[in-house]
Structure formats: structure tokens, C-alpha cells
Amino acid sequence: MPELLAERALVGHEIASRVRIEIDGRGDIVGVARDAAEAGGEPVRGLVLPGMPNLHGHAFQRAMAGLAERLEPGEASFWTWRDVMYRFLARLTPDDVRAIAAQVQVEMLEAGYTSLGEFHYLHHAPGGRPYDEPAAMSAAILDARRTSGIGLTLLPVLYTSGGFGGAPPAEGQRRFLHDLDGFGRLLAWTADATRDDPDLAFGIAPHSLRAVTDDELVQAVALLDALDPAAPVHIHVAEQAREVRDCLAWCGRRPVEHLLDVAEVGPRWCLIHATHMDEEETVRLARSAAVAGLCPTTEANLGDGLFNLPEFLSAGGRFGIGSDSHVGVSPIEELRWLEYGQRLGALRRLVAADERQPHTGARLWRAALEGGAQALGRPVGRIAPGARADLVVIDDDLPALAAARGEAVLDALVFSGNQNPVRRVMVGGRWRVADGRHAAREVVGEAYQRVVRRLV
């Protein structure tokens, strides 16, 4: 049975010393002991943290990061960015998506993410025609994961409409569309393809209230329940102010309010963004025990706005982080942006901290571990028996971390310096990153370069 002997490790809420971590052949942690004897086990120098879950990403968007930053005539908004994105994806093939997904997954691992929720909506060939193998794009994501070794929750997206109330889809959305029968077949394929691998899981992602009707939302969850009633449900909601106005005009309710009224939202749900909530929605979402999926670098890039974090945390809300469009691929950057955005809005410091949890970085880090694990429906985000052996080794000899002790190490990790401190990464008991580099970095990078040079 493999054993690691960590100099220091985050166990629960404590930075413990001389931590022995026992891992079985399946890649699960079966034993954790603090103040362990020095003899035996592979010594691990540095600070060992649970791997960070990345609860939300669209793999193909990694290849267009930075390509929508030129001002064109007219308004520069989320909606004009979306038009650029639709034009970009029009040429992508399954082979392209495989190469792009492998690249971003390798980048995630090197940054300390060990698991990912792939919110996957690019399903069909250009024009909306299904591929001869209807799950070809989903298979490309899974192929990329076999190369990278990242843990993955694959979330096929149901997309039927172009706006609230079942409005007709736009031309750029045709590659996303399914009817419920076709989506049910894709979901069954996904369940089968992820079965019997402890580093894989599945769920569903009704894209948004703009993209599915209320009845379709309920029916999609019923399809999932027939396969696994505990599997996660993710949905975009209330990302943009215009989305709130459009929802009010359609049904007289705000998006989060409407979702909470029409669906049985609970702990298996993850509401991506939920940027624009009033006080009542904030409290209701927190009390539902669902996870708010926050993607601060993307939300900043798209001009979405600021999540109502202090009130949400005060009401007991749970959150995790995602890299979404992958303009940034670092958990440190996401958490730093999350807190700094709040400080700029509130005109004060240490917004996420409170009297019970005074260390801002530590509170954010632990909350993102717990919320991310819940949203992905997998036993990750902690160093404890029963959890996957998803571990990140931090070089705490770096100047930015050298003076910090205890929970202050996590404060310094989030808020000090720009040097990547990740040195080793393990997923499911297997080392994937050594000396800061993924074993497949060069091969994956060359394939990615060939794709983007052709596309751009």
C-alpha cells in the first residue's frame, strides 16, 4: 500500500506536521496520521494540499482566450463577445476539441486543479447536423482526459431554445441543440462511458433558463434521476443584467427566483455565476444548500458584475470556483479576483473573513475545496479516509510563502506573489506533475499549437 510522509499538510482546518497518507491501489486515501514517525513512506517536501476542484469550464474556449479584446464599432458587451465565440466555434472538429481540451487540462493540473466539471455544449457538426457518432465531441473530451489524467465530471448540456419561453435558436447555436430524446441518448452514453472509473463522474447541465423551457428543465432532471438520482445538475443563471431584465419581462420574476420556484434546487445543484441576485434570492439560494459556481476571471473579462458574496456567506451559502472561458487557469487567480472584486465594491478589506474565520485566504481556499467537491459529485477536496488521493504539493520555500505559518500560509498563497508555487500534483494516487511540469506538456502543447495556428 503506497504511503506518503508529508512535511506539512492541510488536514481539515489545520496545517498539520509529519502527516502520513496511506493510499490504496484504487487511488483512495485509506489512512491519515498526524505527527507520524519518520520511518517509512515516500517523503514529500513542502506543503501538501487537497487538489482544488474546478467546477466549471468550456474546454474549446481556451483557444479563443485573448481573441475578443479588440474594440469594434458599437457596444462591447457579453453579447458581442458571444457572437465572436459563435463564429470561432463554427470551424471546430472533434480532433480540434480533443487537442484544446488536453492543453487546458494540462494547464489546470500544473496550476493545482485536480478535477474539472466540463459544461459541454458543443455537440454537433457545423449547421447542427449530428456526427455519425453522435457523442463524438463528448468522446473527444474523455480522450483528452485520458492524456492529462485530470479527474472529470462530464456535464452534457441540454440546449433547445434561443431565449426565454422557448424562443427560436440563433444560427450560431445550432451545434448545441438537442431534443429531449436525443439528449437522453447522449446522457445514457455519458453514464456508460464514465462508469467504473473512480476519476470520472457525470451529471447534466441544462444550459440556462434562456436555453430550456421550464418543462424541459424538469424532464432533463428526471432523465438524470433514472440513471443516478445523486448526480449533479449545473445551470448558468443571472450572469448578466440584461438577462434579469429579459426574465422579468417574460415571467415577472428574476432568474434565480424563477429557478428556485420551478425546480427542486438542493445540494446536488450548482448555479453558475448567479451574479445578479436581490437580497431575497441570495438568502434563498444559500438556504437551498446548492453551490454557487463563481468564475471571477471570466466574470471580470465579460463585464458580468460582482457576486453578492458577503450576504451569501452570512446566510450560510456554499461556493466553488471555475475557470469557465479559461482567460485564467489558476485557482489562486480566481480566489484573488473574488476577494479583490469584493473589496473594490465594498471599499473595505478582508470581505470574506469573519470573527470565526479571520484568515481571508484560508477561508476562501477551504470553502472552494468543499463547494467544488460538492458540485462535482466526487469525493475530492480533502485529505481524509474515503477521499480520492488528489494532492498538490506547494513549494513553501518560495519568498512569498517563507514567512507564513499556520493558516497564514493559505493567506499568503492567495494574496502574495505571482510565481506558480505548485511543484507536484497527484490525481487518484498517480503523480501527474513533477517539478512543476506535466509529463505530457510538450506533446500536448505541440498538438494545441497546430490547431490554433490553423484556426486563427
Number of helices: 14
Report the radius of gyration as a whole number of Å.
21 Å
Approximately what portion of the residues adopt beta-strand conformation? 15-25%
Distance linking N and C termini: 49 Å
Principal-axis shape? globular
Number of strand elements: 17
For the biggest sheet, the summary is: 8 strands, mixed
What proportion of the residues is helical, as a percent range? 25-40%
Instruction: Decide which structural class fits the backbone.
Output: alpha/beta
Strand order of the largest sheet: 3-2-1-4-14-15-16-17
| Unreliable residue stretches | none
Residue-averaged pLDDT: 96
Summarize the structure in words.
With 456 residues, the chain is of the alpha/beta class. Helices cover 37% and strands 21% of the residues. The strands form 3 sheets. It has an 8-stranded mixed sheet with strand order 3-2-1-4-14-15-16-17, with helices on one face. A hairpin with a 5-residue loop joins strand 2 and strand 3. It is globular and about 65 Å long. The mean pLDDT is 96.
